[in-house]
Amino acid sequence: MFKKNPKKNLFSKKARGRIDSSTIGTHVARHGAIDERSVRAGGAVHDSAERKFAPQPEGRDRRDQGPRRVRGTKGDAIVQMSIPTESVKPKSRRGRKKHDAGRALAEKEQRKQSRANWAVWLVIGAVALVAAIAVGFFAYFHFSNAKIKLEPSNAPEALVKAEANDPYYVLCAAQLGTATAMGGHETDAYLLVRVDEAQRRLTVVSIPANLDVWLSDGENHPLSDAHGVGGDAELVRAVAELADVNISHFVYTDAERLAAMVDALGGVPMKVASEVDDPRAGTVVLYAGDATLNGEQALVLLRAMNFAQPFEGASRNRIDFFTAFIERALTANGIEFTALVGDLGDYVSTDYTANDLIDLADRMRPVDTLTVMEGVVPGHVSLSSGKYVYSDEGWAAMAEALRAGEDPSRVGELEPQAPSDGITVEVRNGSGSTGMAATMGERLAADGFVVTNTRNSDDGTIYAETLVIHKDAASEAQAKRVQAAIDCGRVVEGGDFYAFDADVLVIIGRDWML
Q1: Which of 202, 250, 274, 281 could serve as 155's disulfide partner, Cβ 3.0–4.6 Å?
Q2: How does DSSP classify residue 158?
Q3: Is domain 424-513 in CATH 3.10.180.10, yes or no?
């Protein structure tokens, strides 16, 4: 028999120790016995070829399995251990208590981490929401500003920026139209508004559209012609020169848009001073008293001119409506007012931005403590030209009160006017044209004078100049009132030369025909 060479015995004690680490998982288990402890522990024995294809226990994740090396009597084998997901509770009472405490602590930490994660996501969501709202508001107001801007109006050329915290002036213009047509000075309305934000005070002065003014073309025009001569800038400059103020903002609308704005607000509550029934203004009749006007009714109120004193009556209605509209707008809640401002471009054109209007509204609230003063340019309508001629002294006093922030309605106390009611007038035609005396008599009667007689002049003279004759110094004021009403002629004292029974005698000259 041959003697065995111990160096070649792979299963010798020395060799077996050397291959433990290098052959794990690569050898094939022989017929040697396997460690009984691994079997009792529930281990499954696989050779290296079978290990990676070994089926996983049902309901368990591969992470629940862990390879264990088991040393056998004739070699090592890989035992794939099945480790349960749930830890096994200790059998002792103390062990179970410690186990439960550890598990509760782990669950608590997990819940804490979960809440922290939710908090982070909530913060991120809130920041994203705020950013989205900010972007939305920016886009909303940017779009609103684009809608309400004045282009292509040239009004900004004449606007002068006010000093911070100083009162400033706004010119509001509206083309109201009539029930049948647009155009003509009677269809336009102008309000000059002094805004004192610090004192929370508005002063509103109504300016007649047919006011006789000089424009940049060097000619006399009714104020409503200004837009045709030089655009909105011409209108702004004419009113600014008239009142001797700088105008900082301009607002313009027309009949259709104004009516839509009133309806968008749900109507304007106000007190109608007197009954309005003017076919040229519309078919609606407005009765005196409290009412909530819709768009159509508002236009009728603003257009109506068939009053004993047309401009004065119309001006009162327009100022009352403007005041009521401001009060209604300021009482709108935040969302309603913001929506109105956002849609303002559908109703008006202005150099105000949406942010400007919201800031102004905030400064003027609460509305019940807002002070509103009003005035009407003093003057009369010329019977010859149809233009409105303002009283120099009366308007000078009113403009001064306006600039000082005082009540312009007190101007009537500063310049007493001789009333037209009761002044008797005799009219004689010395122009050489037929029917002139009757025409002037009708116009004077419409203006409140008492016309006692109309006839031709009996001296055969053709007068080049109209004469307004009074008897003595006591009746001079009455003659001046008649002269202002006809917007023509020269006042003379002629009681000794001309015989007449009325307070004032008017002899029409050829100048009244021009």
Answers
A1: 250
A2: T
A3: no
